[in-house]
Structure prediction request, 290 residues.
Amino acid sequence: MAPKTVLITGCGPGGIGSALATEFHMRGHRVIATGLSEALLAHLRDRGMETVILDVTSAASIEQAVSHVSKLTGGTLDILINNAGLLHIMPFADTSVEGARRLFDVNVLGVIAVTRAFLPLLLNAATAARESGGGGGPLVANICSINSEVRPPYFSIYNATKAAVEVLSGTIRPELAPLGIRVVVVKTGAIKSEFFNNTPLVKLPEDSLYRPAREFIEGRKVLENTPYMETEVYAKKVVDTLLRPSVKPVIWQGALTTFGWILSWFGWEGMLDGLYIRFNELNKCAIHST
Prediction:
């Protein structure tokens, strides 16, 4: 296989983006790792990867990144992986609109902005693929989550952003297919990365309706006893799949994905509500005097 040029967003240390970048690089592909600062990308640059500063919420940053990458690659890009994202753990009733907007800015609008900006490079790669008869063509892979299926409490805004990206991906897939660009959703399960550790701890408002469950929520006990797949294992499996000549529209990878797949297939809406109420201590908040 000829080496691919791969651009990945959100490549900070210990995360999925970093692991994917490392896996592609180890296989001889050209990796352009992006992140908010050079400091966050130093560990990848030291391994011989190219790094570019990219803030997915900044039009100016995206424009500069596209210009820089275009010069580096001669105006083409084989694989774009939209991985940059934020997490928010908080009861819906205690979530500010500003906080929700910030999450959508990064997790959803960031995907839209980056993908649109790099379309010319992907189109150039599609033209080259057609002319060479090599097949496959350029690929956009959007890192999504099984949370859009399992919908755990306290993750409402995060769950919504991942569902939005999944629907976006499914909609643009047939739009971009005639142009030679493939679009894939990576439905990611529980991964042992720094994603949770890099997310600030929540503190419930003093007048929260959920203060009987304060210790559970602020202590992130919702994450206890969750099985995780090692980040490196996840990256290897995802890269294996993305490099195939033919890739399914949806890739399920990570711990608990079988459970998420079953829920998506049978559509048992509300089946988990009772369990969620009990095991997330929501039952303590059922009758709560303010």
Notes: The domain at 5-205+227-266 is CATH 3.40.50.720 (Rossmann fold).
